[in-house]
Each structure stands twice: as C-alpha cells, then as structure tokens.
Amino acid sequence: MPFGLLKYGFSRTYPVWRQFPPRPDLKPSYDVVIIGGGGHGLAAAYHLSRYHGITSVAVLDKGYLGGGNTARNTAIIRSNYLTPEGVAFYDEALRLFQGLSHEFDFNILYSERGHLTLAHTDAAIRTSRWRAEVNTHLGVESRLVFPDEIARIEPTLDLSREARYPVLGALYHVPGAVARHDAVAWGYGIRAAERGVELHPMTEVTGIEQADGRVTGVVTDRGTIKCGAVIQAVAGMSSVVAGMAGFKLPIRSIPLQACVSQPLKPFLNTIVVSGSLHIYISQSSRGELVMGSASDPYVLYSTRSSLEFTEGLMGHILELFPFLGDVKLMRQWAGITDMTPDFAPVMGTTPLDGYYIDAGWGTWGFKATPACGKNMAELVATGKVPDMIAPFTLERFHKFRMLGEKGAASVGH
Predict the structure, then answer these.
(1) How far apart are the C-alpha atoms of 79 and 248, rounded to whole Å?
(2) Which domains does the chain have, with CATH numbers?
(3) Residue 187 class from Cβ within 10 Å (0-12 exposed, 13-18 middle, 19+ buried)?
(4) Mind spelling out the 3-state secondary structure of 377-396?
(5) Which residues contact 407 (CB under 8 A, 6 or more apart)?
(6) Residues 260-318: tens digit of each pLDDT
(7) Between 188 and which of 3, 46, 101, 130 could a Cys-Cys bridge form, CB atoms 3.0 to 4.6 Å apart?
(8) Do 79 and 93 meet the contact criterion of CB atoms below 8 Å apart?
C-alpha cells in the first residue's frame, strides 16, 4: 500500500489537494453558459478560458460532471472514417488526444493499440479497400490486410476457414487507441476551473430565455442567469434541450449497450471490430474485456441494459474468440445515442442567434472530444464557423447536403 494513502487515512485534517472546487452560487450573468458537463462541454470551457481568454463561463449539468455518455462509452479513439470531412475532423481529435496528458499534466491513460475492422464478405472487403484509400489519401495510416498478416497482429483471433463467419481481411488502422474516458473529462474540468470557469453539477436547465431571435438567458432549478452565448452539449438529451430553445433536431435517441468481463491477463493486442457481426472488443489496462454491439433498434430514453443484448453479443464474440467461453461478465450498462440520418454530428449555429449546438454524435462522440471542444470554443469566441466543422452545420439537412458516414460507423462506436 502506498505510504501516501496510509498517511491520508490516518490524518485528521485530510490535507489533500482538492481537484475540483466546491460548487459556487450562480452569478446573475455570464459571458457563456455551457449546458452539459461532459467531455465536450468541459473541453469547450477549457479552450475558451485557455486559448481565448474567456473565463466568465458557467458549465451546467443536471447530474455530476462527466456522468452522462462520457462515463458510459467504451473509450475507443480512431480516425479511419469514410468521408473527407469526417477523416479530417477525427484525425485532428486523435492528434489532440496524443498530447492531452502532457497538456493537462494529468494522465488520461492514452494507449495506442491499433484498430482492426474485420471483413467477412466480399462486399466488406470492398468497403475496407475504399476506406483505406480515402484514409491514405488524407494522410491517415490505414491499410487493407489479409489473414496471414492479421494472424501476426492478433494471434488469438480465430482465422480458420471452417469458422461460421470466416475472416477474409480487415482494415488495419495503426493509430487506433483507447483512453480513460473519465480522466479526459476530469483533465478538462480541473484545468478550466483553475482559469476561472465555474462548474455547476446538480443544476438542471428547465428553460431557455430569448428575445428578438437571440438567446438572453438560461433558466435552471437554482435560478435564472443571463448570458451572451450558450453552447448545448448534452448528448442523449439533445432533442429535449433544443426543444426548450424552440427548434427541432433531425435526431433519434437510441440506447447503446456495452459490458466488461472479469479481468484477464493481457492477450488482446488491438481493438477488434466486426461490422457484419455488430461487435467490438478491446482489453483495458486492468485486463477487463470491454465489449459492445450496435445500438438498440428502437427509440428510448433509458439507460437500462438487457439480457437480449448480452446473449447476442456473447454469441458473436465466441465466433471470433472461442476460448472465452468460460469467462464471466462483470457488469453491463447503456448510454443514449443521438443518431442523425447521415451518421455525422451536428456542430455550429442554430436558428436561435447566440445559441450553438454540439449534438448528433451517435456512437462516436468520445473520440471527437478534443476537436469538438477546440472548434466550438473558436466559434463562440470569434463568431465565425471554423472550416473544420463547417460541413457539419445543422443547415445541411435543409439544403440536402448530408454526409455519407454510415459506411465508417462500423458498429457501436
């Protein structure tokens, strides 16, 4: 046991640095109010305070900080998407992730593993080749690999031709990584608070005030506050909060389930995904197998988990790793995903002047956290939509300029 832990346990004063300050009273007004205290909201607050000098910022969340989808995802980071817009955005996020521990002076447990998207059919091989070409053209390290090379990369994977779903090849994305999702939110929150940003957990937003087509304030269960700008970053509740602001989003909110096994000795080198089987699996630094599937087939505002999900997922996991048959599950959970028609997010301005949206992340919001925070902060600070997020505007659904990202969504991440 570390000596510091013993010293802390026997101390009467508990002289330990408190990472987050106590929740303050709400002020009458702020320059910027951020609705949503998850990774995206805290990242935007951090970038506003550090890089744009805007510190009159209040981050509001009806629960605890990082307790929504930030706490309920499976922490996969990648940029092997299909559209040029998606690849550029997620690749910027990946590069930012690589330096976050240094920037925060706070370990986010970033671990580069490599990412294998398995292909079980000729059609899946064609899609993998297509994605590899797009990725390579845009400077992202991805390539099509076949069973002989897959066996060297991931030797425990069942590659026999007698398998029910034989592996014909895979898209190998070398920079694919994982990180501690909670630590990402904590790092952004701690450093934003040090610069004067106020963090207000357990503060529910109940209404949006506006006048002459512009946002003027936010109504909460602790009082009303005036503000010059609002960023909405509430993941699965995006349509509900946008409704308070008076506009609709092209979003369906659907549960996404995941689970972890008991800890095992390290054996899984990469993140393994099968779009055909609708599964993904990686191994955490603690040895747990982190597993998930596609989102549920119906709209539901609930984070319950189901036996149906577990049975279907385990059946397909055992197709790829038959030796895991006796491994026990330790826990399972669900988040709520915002699914757009083109499987791409919504970022930027809204019909309400001064009200900015960060939504529609579906099953891939965590990996976007640094780039989203950076670009949303730039938008609010400068009043100009950054080129990086211009393609993801809400207006694209009215102008029929949608992005075709479904082919790279793979499965539940």
Answers:
(1) 29
(2) 22-74+181-250+342-408 (3.50.50.60), 114-174+253-339 (3.30.9.10)
(3) buried
(4) HHHHHHCCCCCCCHHHCHHH
(5) 82, 127, 130, 131
(6) 999 999 999 999 999 889 999 999 999 999 999 988 888 888 888 899 999 999 999 99
(7) 46
(8) yes
Residue numbers of the chain with a pLDDT score lower than 70: 1-5, 14-17, 406-413
The CA-CA-CA angle for residues 296, 298, 302, to 5°, reads: 75
Lookup result for tokens 């004067």: 196
What one-character DSSP code corresponds to residue 121? Answer: S
Do 208 and 356 contact (CB within 8 A), yes or no?
no
Q: Are the CB atoms for 231 and 34 separated by under 8 Å?
A: yes
> Quick check: helix, strand or coil at residue 319?
helix
| Tokens 């609709």 belong to residue | 248
CA 393 to chain CA centroid, nearest Å: 19
Task: List C-alpha distances in Å: 202 to 42, 233, 309, 335.
Answer: 15, 16, 31, 19
